[in-house]
Amino acid sequence: MTSTTLQNPNTKRSSFARVPSAFRLQFAVPYSFIWLPMVIFVLAWAFGLGIGFLVDSQSPDRIPAEEPIHTTGAAQATIWYLAFMAAYTASHTFPFSVALSYSRRVYLIGTYLTFLVVSAGYGAAAMLAYWIERVTDGFGRHLYVFGSPSFENLGGALGVGCFGAVLALFFMCFGFFWAILYRRVTIPILWTVIIGVIVVILGAVALITINDWWINVGMWLVEQNAFTLAGWGLLATVLLGLLNYVLIRKATVS
């Protein structure tokens, strides 16, 4: 005996059913969010260590265990690339999604899921790099990009992974923000916002300097660890994500 289930033609399909498709849309070109970030991560790591080995070779009197070399700036390379790719996503896949009749809400949820997965991958890679550097004592010469001994008190491998993931997620939302703002407002308003942000930052720096608050800022930073910094970063990311939602609702695709 067989049975056949017929779908009621009047049944309305939820718009959220297309979220997985919007998520997969971001991986239509796999190298954008998978292979290139991995290559950049490895190359930047190798480049940072290469600089460390070069400095080490020019310091014959250096005692590695007492004078570790840190080239942590190399860890930023992948994050800046991901921020650029997030902006590229807003400028290229957003019009494509509209052409495919995705709602803006579904597209944004799918895009945020992509950002979340990619940033989690970056955090996991940072944890692995931290572990390798710590186990090998900085490749035998105390050279560190991700695994500085000073990070041990900030949360160790898990702290580095959490903070790295949140940082990547924030900058992806940040890059997405500027590209979607470009589609939402006119060029004069866009420049007004850019100048306004710069003025606010400079005003904050001036206010802190005039009132001699840099010591307070430093003390606040010293009291933080990787998890609390990740928490503040996550709060900023959520607020930025909500702002992106407000902007994309009326963003144009022309």
From TrEMBL:
Tell me which species this is from. Answer: Enteractinococcus fodinae
On whether Membrane is a keyword of this UniProt record, the answer is yes
Q: Can you name this protein? A: ABC transporter permease
Cite the entry's keywords alphabetically: Membrane, Transmembrane, Transmembrane helix
Transmembrane ranges?
33-54, 74-94, 106-132, 157-182, 189-210, 230-248
Keyword Protein biosynthesis present in the record's keywords: the answer is no
